[in-house]
């Protein structure tokens, strides 16, 4: 695969663009406003600087990687891409509108991938005329560090598309593992109930936030405690995923903790807003 496009220059989109450019791809990075692109490029430069400091990249290599990323606000700039990875807001209507535009705009053989963390790949594919070429590529945050891409096959996704994405993932230096298209796929179906349970433990006064996180970190060897991780992911994102699980399975075990709902209503969305379960 040659030309690579990423739609959305937020945390995930900029991370995906960085990994692709580092693997040697030319990357079109599209967002709706120049300030979002600037923020994304600043994040990428800071992340590459860590590797320069650790002498895993030379300053010249860093510049070459940055030069392979082509920021744009024009959606039409993705028209020659062979693979488009969407990483916009986690909202079905927004993704559906974008995929229908991408379907009209891109070459017929292009693969349209989504980094959605919980929206149905089958539903996204169905808004296009190429559902066999629509697939989930669920990267993990922080994208440059985490080795996994969860590859999600929609009902209609073809073997050829899946194989092309497995090949691409390997070129990006990631391990791809395949899941089928059910709510939360594998990663969030298992992760979110654990984070939710930690929130219930806090809500019910079982322990302090520090104790809950410390017990899971030191006792289970998790890199971050569950409340710290929820703040890192974003509490709005956690709530949206839990709601997808709750609605998709109709099972009360996925009911979001009322404390989470209240924090989101208060605008305490975690690290990105300076306050969540912790203050930043
Ligand atoms: N860019 C590049 N490198 C980065 C980085 C970034 N943004 N953030 C951290 N790193 C690198 C550091 O340079 C360091 O590299 P080194 O060990 O090779 O020198 C390494 O990662 C460790 O970083 P730090 O020493 O600064 O900090 P930690 O040891 O605390 O690690 C962490 C930070 C990697 C974020 C670790 O805490 C962690 O793995 N946390 C859990 C992350 C996780 O679970 N992510 C998945 C979230 S769920 C998700 O994304 C799915 C969605 O659908 C919700």
Automatic annotation (TrEMBL):
EC number(s) stated in the UniProt entry for this protein: 1.1.1.157
Keywords, alphabetical: Oxidoreductase
Domain (3-hydroxyacyl-CoA dehydrogenase C-terminal) ranges: 184-280
Protein name from the UniProt record: 3-hydroxybutyryl-CoA dehydrogenase
Domain of life (superkingdom): Bacteria
GO molecular function terms attached to this record: 3-hydroxybutyryl-CoA dehydrogenase activity
PROSITE patterns, per the entry: 3HCDH (PS00067)
Family, per entry: Belongs to the 3-hydroxyacyl-CoA dehydrogenase family.
Phylogenetic placement of the source organism: Bacteria, Pseudomonadati, Acidobacteriota, Terriglobia, Terriglobales
Domain 3-hydroxyacyl-CoA dehydrogenase NAD binding, residue spans: 5-181
InterPro entries per UniProt: 3-OHacyl-CoA_DH, 3-OHacyl-CoA_DH_CS, 3-OHacyl-CoA_DH_NAD-bd, 3HC_DH_C, 6-PGluconate_DH-like_C_sf, 6PGD_dom2, NAD(P)-bd_dom_sf
Organism: Chloracidobacterium validum
């Amino acid at each position: 695969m040659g030309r690579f496009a990423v739609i959305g220059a937020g945390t995930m989109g900029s991370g995906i663009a960085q990994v692709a450019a580092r693997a040697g791809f030319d990357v079109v990075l599209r967002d709706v406003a120049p300030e979002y692109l600037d923020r994304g490029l600043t994040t990428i430069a800071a992340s590459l600087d860590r590797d320069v400091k650790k002498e895993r990249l030379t300053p010249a290599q860093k510049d070459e990687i940055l030069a392979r990323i082509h920021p744009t606000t024009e959606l039409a700039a993705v028209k020659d891409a062979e693979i488009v990875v969407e990483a916009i807001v986690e909202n079905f209507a927004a993704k559906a509108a974008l995929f229908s535009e991408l379907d009209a705009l891109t070459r017929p053989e292009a693969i349209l991938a989504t980094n959605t963390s919980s929206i149905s790949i089958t539903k996204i594919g169905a808004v296009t005329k190429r559902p066999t070429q629509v697939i989930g590529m669920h990267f993990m945050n922080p994208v440059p560090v985490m080795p996994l891409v969860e590859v999600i096959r929609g009902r209609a996704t073809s073997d050829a598309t899946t194989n092309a994405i497995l090949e691409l993932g390997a070129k990006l230096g990631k391990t791809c593992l395949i899941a089928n298209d059910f709510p939360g796929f594998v990663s969030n179906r298992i992760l979110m109930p654990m984070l939710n349970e930690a929130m219930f433990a806090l809500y019910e006064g079982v322990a302090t936030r520090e104790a809950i996180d410390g017990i899971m970190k030191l006792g289970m060897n998790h890199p971050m405690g569950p409340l710290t991780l929820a703040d890192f992911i974003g509490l709005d994102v956690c709530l949206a995923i839990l709601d997808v699980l709750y609605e998709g399975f109709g099972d009360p075990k996925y009911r979001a903790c009322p404390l989470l709902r209240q924090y989101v209503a208060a605008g305490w969305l975690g690290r990105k807003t300076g306050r969540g379960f912790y203050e930043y």
